[in-house]
Specification:
homodimer; 231 residues; alpha/beta; Methyltransferase, Cobalt-precorrin-4 Transmethylase, Domain 2; 7 helices
């Protein structure tokens, strides 16, 4: 029997209209859909594509533990990959739904690592959150010979500072509980005024505000900072 | 009379199926479309959306000179912006078609700079070429706490070397006639083996090959290199 295909489907930053035609077509072909969510929260990726899923079709929900202890996350991906593999063995395609793009900080890499050698894999790229954020902020990210650094806020202070010093345009992702640390680093480098905070880019509750005017110290996971190149 | 809206519409990397639902909806609403092309070549962005345009609708073609002398390019953008402005003044929307994403190395920034203050602007983000290239190469670009550097191949050798040394994952865009220079820098840094060359990602003539196996010294404009993080 032909094995099913492992499909990594980027669903974009939040607005269901930022799905690609290809993602919609693939989902309407009726694969089993799979998605990852942490801490018992509903999957944002699944809610973005909900209208394109046929009701009653089986779904694979990979629930990561609340506290992301590496061993527990590892075990959850192992178990999720096994469930996906079982469907692929029966010849049915599985579409793993990924916020943004599957190969940019996505949990899809975890599943691809476990399944990509045995099963034919196709990846549908998606609109990345930081370009949606630039659109929301009406700010060109980079042009001409400028460089762009995409940095996770989880980096230690020193590493953040080094990367910030070298790049023209910067996007800092995964802010969450790292916002206070990032703010301190930016402030020390005199970059606070250039930073724009964008929460839930392109979604209904999108929010754009200068970091200097932001009064919170803890941000949602799907928030980021943009630093357009100095003029 | 209400002024028209300036729309920056990302059309993605090449595959017409990687258009977003939003881009398609906006184009089907019948704005005047505008696009930039250089050296008398046909616009790739226009060919991607061709099936969604109504025939007979006026179009604005901004032709950049073959040799991109800054003053001549400047004058072409000035003239293009004036033509777009004239349409917006009559209350009609203008959709500027942009390969990839409008705010990532797009010529849209040139028009936005000239028109964005007077006219209401909306930007529709698109799938970036380098994520489509990662999908084509079946290679995760970055995960966890890794950093991504997006670098234009137009940078001088020293700058390229500095940025390459500091980042985990790297995408080098706009290869064109800079391929030989970039290859030399990568070779000197011992990074040649890690580099993957992707031409026309997601398009019908997509091509993926290890840089070490690539025999050419000059590449098309829409080609790039990916360096996934070291394992």
């Amino acid at each position: 029997m032909t094995l099913g295909r492992l499909l990594g489907v980027g669903v974009g930053p939040g607005d269901p209209e930022l799905l690609t035609l290809k993602a919609v077509r693939i989902l309407r072909e009726g694969p089993v859909v799979a998605y990852v969510s942490a801490g018992g929260r509903p999957s944002m990726a699944r809610s973005i594509v909900a209208e394109h899923l046929s009701s009653g079709s089986p779904e694979i929900h990979i629930a990561l533990p609340m506290r992301l202890v590496p061993e527990l996350a590892h075990a959850a991906y192992d178990e999720g990959a096994a469930r996906i593999g079982a469907v692929l063995e029966r010849g049915r395609d599985v579409a793993v739904l990924c916020m943004g793009d599957p190969f940019l900080y996505g949990s899809f890499a975890q599943l691809f690592e476990r399944l990509g050698e045995r099963y034919r894999t196709e990846v549908v790229p998606g609109v990345a959150s930081f370009t949606a954020a630039a659109a929301a902020a009406r700010t060109p990210l980079v042009g001409r010979s400028e460089t762009l650094a995409v940095l996770p806020a989880t980096l230690p202070r020193d590493a953040l500072a080094t990367h910030l010093a070298g790049a023209d345009g910067v996007a800092i992702l995964k802010l969450g509980r790292h916002l206070a640390k990032v703010r301190t680093v930016l402030s020390e480098l005199g970059l606070l005024e250039r930073a724009i905070y964008v929460e839930h880019a392109s979604a209904a509750d999108e929010r754009v505000v200068r970091l200097a005017d932001l009064a919170i110290d803890q941000a949602p996971y799907f928030s980021l900072l943009l630093l357009p190149p100095a003029p």
